[in-house]
Design goal:
Oligomer: heterodimer
Order of helices and strands of chain B: HHHHHHHHHH
Structural class of chain B: mainly alpha
Distance between the termini of chain A: 35 Å
Helix content of chain A: 25-40%
CATH superfamily of the largest domain in chain A: P-loop containing nucleotide triphosphate hydrolases
CATH architecture of the largest domain in chain A: 3-Layer(aba) Sandwich
Number of strands of chain B: 0
Helix content of chain B: over 70%
Number of helices of chain B: 10
Number of domains of chain B: 1
Distance between the termini of chain B: 41 Å
Strand content of chain B: under 5%
Strand content of chain A: 25-35%
Largest sheet of chain A: 6 strands, mixed
Amino acid sequence: MALAVQTKGLTRVFDAKRKFLRRRKPENGEPAGPVTALDGVDLEIRDGELFGLLGPNGAGKTTLIKILCTLLLPTSGEAFVAGYDVTKDPFPIRTKINMVSGGETSGYGLLTTRENIWMFSQFYGVPSKVAKPKIDELLHTFGLWDKRDSKVRVLSSGQRQKMNMIRGFVTDPDILFLDEPTLGLDVNASRVIREYVMNWVRGQKGKTVLLTTHYMMEADDMCDRLAIINNGRILAVDTPGNLKRRLKKDTTFRLEVDPLKDTSPLKGIAGVKNFSETSDGGGSVLKLTFILEEESAVSDIMSEVVRQGSKIHYLHKSEPTLEDVFISMVGRSLE
Amino acid sequence: MNPTISRHWRSFKWAAWLGWQIESNWTRPSLFAIYSVIKPIASAFILVLMYVAFAFIGKIDDPALFNFVYVGNAFFIFVGNTLFGTFQVIQQDREWYQTLRYTYISPISYYTYIVGRATTKVVVAAFAVLITLGFGVGFLQIRLVLALGDLPLFVAAFLLGILTLVGIGVCLAALSFLTARHVHGLAEGIPGLFYLFCGILFPLSILPQWAQFVGRALPLTYWFEITRRLVLPPEYQIDTGIVGDPLTMLGLLAVSAAAFFVLSIGMFRWMEYLARKAGKLDMTTSY
């Protein structure tokens, strides 16, 4: 099967210290040294696939999308989109792709919603007689019909995000990059977008979507295959079902306890493969998820919790989720 | 149509359309029309005040000098508008509208897109120049004469002057791929340098030798010189210290327009490459 996207040893390092015209000291929060955003990524996405990239913030998802969209050059390695090299042949790639980033409020505020989308369709050379009815159809689908003649400056951020989704679909690209498309949207809008994306890919031949998300449910529901990425490295690539089956021989336990003084002893308990911890309820409750190679380890975990003077509020054995797959590989949760 | 030409035409056409919407769509058409007339007239009054101040301090009352200053400043509107407009395309799209990444990854020529946006500025500036000159002729005793036989030379000089400006503008706009902090300084500073050294407000001959040398090295100096020689009557011509016939100066302008066109393509590609390499194409800053 033909490949829509292929990367070979793709690496991207950001040199935080080099600045244009002068050198300056890193400001608060800026890394002092080089940051490796992608570290030898090998990936193959087939034509017609809805492929997910699942990872926490800062894992390298957006960097990968930027390289594939020809916005950013790799430091080393190769990347091909629709068979073209992103470094040497960016222009043929641009005729075949589009991209939408979630959580953005981009758009020309002085244009109406319809004008904004229409203008971008003209950049792609879509004839007006094709673009205009398609825009109207998409405005209905995404619930923006009432705002079609409103200036973009008066749209809410969620409405702007929907407008940008329409901008992505109106050009009918062969390969669509969706970078956290439902970020910040309400439940209903997210559902509409997810359903539209799935129907768009599966309802016609030769359409490919690369979707980045840190919502495991989104990845699980939508994707044919997905890659788990952390710290710029691809940890696993498979279907959601196969990834979860990797944990079938392991057991997942979820606990809610009073905050512990020290969680490090939990890692050393025999039979514990990995675990994650998150605080909830203003820090009054500690949520622990354990991936256990031996189910008997749960008694030692409970003993340790009690030894530290903490109470157990909740204990549940559950079927593995994608998040559990992530925890077993990385040792922390996606959130 | 040839696909490459089609791509450039598409880029130019829709960029110019967008530029016009940004220029004109911020208010009602009637208010925009009033603003477009009042703004250049208000600027003309500033010129009058400047001249009155010069006349009072220098104890001079020379209509030829006033015509020189007025026509120079009227045509300088092209310089300010075109350079500022070209500079700001990348900054506006990247920082204000946050659309640069989507425009950039679309199958257009981003270079031609910038030129298209700049063209809108030239059109808006042309309207302002006409209003300024018309107001000057009607109310400030400005005398303009353009012989029909000189019209081709005037148009050629105008087109080459604008091409040179757009070339300079794209060179500097390309810098804004890499920096946001310095864009406003450059956008205001570079036209300021041209204002000082190209004989806009006062003849080049009154500047120090080194400044005259700088002025003679700048192509816009010749555009303004040709324009004044063609539109001001003989009795209102003053010695600017620039010798040479208009055709020679036109040749210089043609060479500089070609040079800046080539330079702008080189600069654009180089800066675009560096920005893509550094990950700055779609950076957002607080500038």
